[in-house]
Amino acid sequence: MRDISASINSLAHCALLAEDFLYISDSIKNISYHGKETFRDKYKLNTIVDTESNFKPHNSGTNDVFGQCNPSSNMGTCHLFALTYCWISLRSGQYAKKVMQRLSIWSRWYLVTDVIYARGPIHETFDVLDTAQTEICDLFSDVLSRDHTYPLMICGKNFMRDQSLLLLLILLLIGVPLEHIQNDFGFTVQQIESCPSQNKGESDFLKAILLTDKHWISAVAQYLDESFGGIENYLISGGVSRRAISAIRKMLLQDPQKS
């Protein structure tokens, strides 16, 4: 678990972001094991955003809570240990359809994940931005724009793909300079560098992440600019109001007037 606000401020040599408000983590394994004492009391968190779409296995012992949730949906929230727990899947049905379209009939015996890994982290991220716009925008509208959301932690799988993307979108929206985002991402790369890979596909994808490193940040920013006119227009076209965008900036920036 890493304090992004403190990291960005250290890199910027100034109080750019409101500290102790924004954290990133790999898999938190079992929320029920850590419980309120860790997340609510120790880290003072109000919200956990989990990009692990299959959340029940690592939240054993919380069936009474998750009975109120809809695990088949791509995004939702419920209350857990006095926290707001939000799950979001960036791999929607549209994403799966897009991947399948790249498989010729003769190659469909191969794992779909091989196609994803072959795309590499940059183009795979473009696919996610195109097909998960609804889920991403719902997160910004319904969760990130509310003052009781923060402090917030974004977590997910150990490769840090989805939580890094959501964090990047947040930082771009509030106007953090690319240089600081790229340098901060270097700390995430160091974290995933030690991740154990389960197969060659995962190993190749991890190597691709390490090789693209800072290029991934600039490539995503450029894609948003060229395809949507920037992150703000991407969110607005997906249904996020200007009021919600303004609220996010106001809460996360030390001085919102600078955005």
Please explain how this structure is put together.
With 259 residues, this protein is an alpha/beta fold. It has one domain: Protein tyrosine phosphatase superfamily (Protein-Tyrosine Phosphatase, Chain A). The protein is built from twelve helices and six strands. The protein has a six-stranded mixed β-sheet with strand order 1-2-6-3-5-4, with helices on both faces. Helix 5 packs across helix 9. It is globular. The chain starts with a strand and ends in a 7-residue tail after the last helix. The relative contact order is 0.16. About 6% of the residues have low confidence. GO terms for molecular function: phosphoprotein phosphatase activity.
Summarize the topology:
Elements: E1 2-3, H1 4-12, E2 22-24, H2 31-42, E3 47-50, H3 63-66, E4 75-80, E5 83-88, H4 93-100, H5 112-131, H6 133-144, E6 152-155, H7 161-173, H8 178-192, H9 200-212, H10 214-228, H11 231-237, H12 242-252
Parallel strand pairs: 2-6, 3-5, 3-6
Antiparallel strand pairs: 1-2, 4-5
Helix pairs in contact: 1-8, 4-5, 5-9, 5-10, 7-8, 8-10, 10-11
Characteristics of this structure?
259 residues, alpha/beta, Protein-Tyrosine Phosphatase, Chain A, 6-stranded mixed beta sheet, Tyr/Ser_Pase_IphP-type
The global form is globular
Provide the CATH top-level class.
Alpha Beta
CA-to-CA gap between the ends?
A: 27 Å
Task: Please name the CATH architecture.
Answer: Alpha-Beta Complex
Q: Low-confidence parts, pLDDT < 50 over ≥5 residues?
A: 57-71
Into how many domains do the coordinates divide? 1
Structural class: alpha/beta
What CATH calls the topology is Protein-Tyrosine Phosphatase, Chain A
Largest sheet: 6 strands, mixed
Compute the average pLDDT.
Answer: 81
Helix run count: 12
What integer value in Å does the Rg equal? 18 Å
Can you count the beta strands? Answer: 6
Q: Could you state the order of secondary-structure elements as H and E?
A: EHEHEHEEHHHEHHHHHH
CATH superfamily: Protein tyrosine phosphatase superfamily
Sheet with most strands: strand arrangement: 1-2-6-3-5-4
Percent in helix = 40-55%
The percent range for strand residues is 5-15%
Pfam families: Y_phosphatase3 (PF13350)
InterPro entries: Prot-tyrosine_phosphatase-like (IPR029021), Tyr/Ser_Pase_IphP-type (IPR026893)
GO molecular function, one term: phosphoprotein phosphatase activity
